[in-house]
């Protein structure tokens, strides 16, 4: 299996996710993908263009092979947080309820103590009134009936005061409980708002981190794309230069071959001309020599030709023919 397809069939197991999907945890895979992208096929050939398409598909498959389990891991993390949040809320609510129950015991005791103090105060007032009645009975016997009437009126007033004190105490107790309930409700509301604010801030922070990572990845993708385009352009320009250099080399080679062919043709032509000139020169000398043998020596034409051939062939000693 080639390096190009190794990542395409990569399987990331769930237990590997915590170690991989962290800051810079995927650098090794990115390095492998970048190394894969360094290959520069010949874009001028169909095979090279097909190879570029295969590389791009392999990179996409590698991306999917790593991204898919990562998305599943993020979903798992979000689902794992929900039970914790629910349990924390239940715990906080229960603690608040238990605390309020503990405080209620103290507040009930305090209210009872306040009520007893008020009753004692009322009883003391009543006792004082009775003593005053006794003094009045001793000092003003003649006004017993009048004093008795006054005492009854005082008793009625004491009863009214006692009832009013009890009503006020009950009202204070109700107001105290309402105030505690309001404070508890406001505290729960405030804590819920603070929790919601923390969750919003945490969500915004995570979203900002994801956005920053996505932007960084996008910048990296653009940089890689520009580098690939630049390499492809350089490869294209290099191929064009090599093509032009090959054409120029072929042209020079053809020109040199043509020059050699023309030179050879000229040499053959010159040699032919020289041979023709030599033959004509020899023929002229032979003709003149034969004519001289005929005219000077009185030989017949056949004798003159035979004599010339003998001299030319070196058969006659001490004679030669200079061409």
Pattern of helices and strands: HHHHHH
How many domains make up the coordinates?
Answer: 1
How many helix segments? 6
Instruction: Note poorly predicted spans.
Output: 1-6
Shape: rod-shaped
Secondary structure: helix percent: over 70%
Tally of strands: 0
Mean pLDDT value:
78
Q: Rg, please?
A: 64 Å
Question: Any descriptors?
Answer:
disordered N terminus; mainly alpha; 86% helix; single chain
Protein described:
By secondary structure, the protein is mainly α. It has one domain (3-251). It is built from six helices and no strands. The chain has helices spanning 3-6, 17-20, 27-37, 46-139, 144-297, 301-312. Helix 4 (46-139) packs antiparallel against helix 5 and helix 5 crosses helix 6. The two termini are 85 Å apart. The model is unreliable at 1-6 (pLDDT under 50).
């Amino acid at each position: 299996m080639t390096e190009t397809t190794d990542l395409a069939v990569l399987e990331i197991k769930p237990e590997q996710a915590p170690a991989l999907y962290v800051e810079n945890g995927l650098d090794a895979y990115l390095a492998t993908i970048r190394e894969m992208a360094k290959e520069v096929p010949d874009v001028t050939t169909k095979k090279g263009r097909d190879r570029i398409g295969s590389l791009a598909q392999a990179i996409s498959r590698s991306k999917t092979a790593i991204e898919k389990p990562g998305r599943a891991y993020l979903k798992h993390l979000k689902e794992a947080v929900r039970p914790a949040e629910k349990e924390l809320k239940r715990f906080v609510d229960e603690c608040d309820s238990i605390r309020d129950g503990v405080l209620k015991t103290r507040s009930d005791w305090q209210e009872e103590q306040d009520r007893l103090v008020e009753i004692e105060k009322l009883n003391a007032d009543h006792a004082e009134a009775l003593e005053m009645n006794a003094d009045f009975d001793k000092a003003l016997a003649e006004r017993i009936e009048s004093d008795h009437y006054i005492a009854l009126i005082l008793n009625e007033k004491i009863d009214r005061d006692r009832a009013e004190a009890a009503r006020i105490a009950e009202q204070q107790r109700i107001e105290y409980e309402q105030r505690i309930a309001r404070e508890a409700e406001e505290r729960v509301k405030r804590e819920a708002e603070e929790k919601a604010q923390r969750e919003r801030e945490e969500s915004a922070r995570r979203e900002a981190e994801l956005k920053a990572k996505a932007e960084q990845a996008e910048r990296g993708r653009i940089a890689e794309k520009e580098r690939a385009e630049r390499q492809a352009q350089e490869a294209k320009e290099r191929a064009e230069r090599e093509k032009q250099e090959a054409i120029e080399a072929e042209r020079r080679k053809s020109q040199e071959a043509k020059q050699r062919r023309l030179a050879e043709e000229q040499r053959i032509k010159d040699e032919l001309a020289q041979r023709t000139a030599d033959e004509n020169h020899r023929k002229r000398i032979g003709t003149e020599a034969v004519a001289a043998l005929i005219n000077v020596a009185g030989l017949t034409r056949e004798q003159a030709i035979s004599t010339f051939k003998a001299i030319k062939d070196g058969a006659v000693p001490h004679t030669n023919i200079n061409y």
